[in-house]
Amino acid sequence: MPHHWFKSIKLMLVPALLMLALAGCGSPSVADTYPLESVSSKGATETSKVYRAANKTVPEVAKELADQNQPDEISKEDTQHMFLVYPDKLYHLQQDSAKPTDTLIEVDSKEYVRNNYDSSFLQGYILASVLDDLFDGMKTKGGYRGYSSKDIYKPSGTYHVPTTEEKKASPPITTAGKGSIIKRGSTSKNTDGSVGSSGDILKKQVEPSKSSSGKIIRNSGSSSSSSSGSFSSKRSSIFSSPKSNSPPRTKAGGFGRITKRR
């Protein structure tokens, strides 16, 4: 395979693989939109993060997240509790009992839900068949009912104010419909095509070419001269006109044939 063909194939595959990786994330991100308020974790897989959406109702936030990435299941509209089910996470949206104008967005891993939530509470919002699929037919093992009521229905772990490292650990988000990666906290613009404030790793800035470009000049009238660096349309045309436009003549000899002057 020629080298330039191989290079072209690689250039086409890189964006395609990147889009597949982004599509495989499976759930929307709230890390760059809302502040991280509280964190609970037991090991690497049992995690819960709580974000605050100020002055937004539960249905408003549910619609916003569903528009970012369609969930496998979404509970019916409710002003106090709504759930969005994704393959790897459960989004529990709940009205803050201490500040009813705000919505708390609790993002729980499957292991956290399995080991903490009350099954009967979840079944009041999510179909039992969906829960069976999410947890492979296993029931949850706790009495937890969400962060807003954690002091009454306690989880097995404890929540704490996120550290600087935990805030930095939140992954970058994707911009809807643009296929680019936005790196949080970037403020500088790079002129070498690297990731900067725009965050687009697929778009490289290119300086406009300062070199002059050639021109095609058509001859007018009978002039056959052309300027340096240009091409005459008369010389390059394959449909040149005949040297003479006089009528054809018959060849002497009485045969009556018509010949074209050369």
Fold and architecture overview:
- The protein is of the alpha+beta class and 262 residues long.
- The chain has a domain at 36-170.
- 23% of the residues lie in helices and 18% in strands.
- The protein has helices spanning 3-23, 58-68, 110-116, 119-123, 128-134, 164-168, 233-236, and strands at 36-42, 46-53, 73-74, 81-85, 89-95, 103-109, 173-174, 181-182, 216-217, 231-232, 249-250, 258-259.
- The strands form four sheets. Strands 1-2-6-5-4-3 form a six-stranded antiparallel β-sheet, with helices on both faces. A two-stranded antiparallel ribbon has the order 7-8. It has a two-stranded parallel sheet with strand order 9-10.
- The two termini are 50 Å apart.
End-to-end Cα distance: 50 Å
Unreliably modeled segments:
14-25, 171-212, 220-240
Instruction: Provide a count of the helices.
Output: 7
Please trace the helix and strand order, writing H or E for each element.
HEEHEEEEHHHHEEEEHEE
Mean pLDDT: 73
Largest sheet: 6 strands, antiparallel
Q: Structural class per helix/strand content?
A: alpha+beta
Write down the Rg. 35 Å
Percent of residues in helices comes to 10-25%
Described by the principal axes of the CA atoms, the overall outline is: globular
The overall strand count is: 12
Provide the β-strand percentage band: 15-25%
Spatial strand arrangement across the major sheet: 1-2-6-5-4-3
How would you sum up this structure in a few lines?
The protein has 262 residues and is an alpha+beta fold.
